[in-house]
Amino acid sequence: MKAAELNKMSAEELNAKLKELKAELFNLRFQHAINQLDNPHRIVDVKRDIARVMTVLNQKNA
């Protein structure tokens, strides 16, 4: 997900996206723990997306 896309979203949409990404990260970690994860790099990608969403949220709140 690109930062430009996130800047166009409202704060409510960003909060919903953040919740969705955190749930996905939880599921990926669970799959990784039981050795069923096909692409381990996806965990890194989701973490970066979470950081991007949180950065844009902080910018909008400031």
Structure description:
This protein is mainly α and 62 residues long. It has one domain: Helix Hairpins, CATH 1.10.287.310. The chain has helices spanning 3-7, 11-33, 41-61. The two termini are 22 Å apart.
Describe the structure in brief.
The protein has 62 residues and is an all-alpha fold. The chain is built from three helices and no strands. The chain has one domain: Helix Hairpins, CATH 1.10.287.310.
Give the number of DSSP strands. Answer: 0
Q: Give the class-level CATH name.
A: Mainly Alpha
Question: Helical content, roughly?
Answer: over 70%
Strand content: under 5%
- Coarse shape: elongated
Structural class: mainly alpha
Which stretches are low in confidence, meaning pLDDT under 50 for 5 or more residues running? none
Question: What number of domains?
Answer: 1
Strand-helix topology:
Layout: H1 3-7, H2 11-33, H3 41-61
Helix pairs in contact: 2-3
Q: Which structural traits does this protein have?
A:
mainly alpha, Helix Hairpins, 62 residues
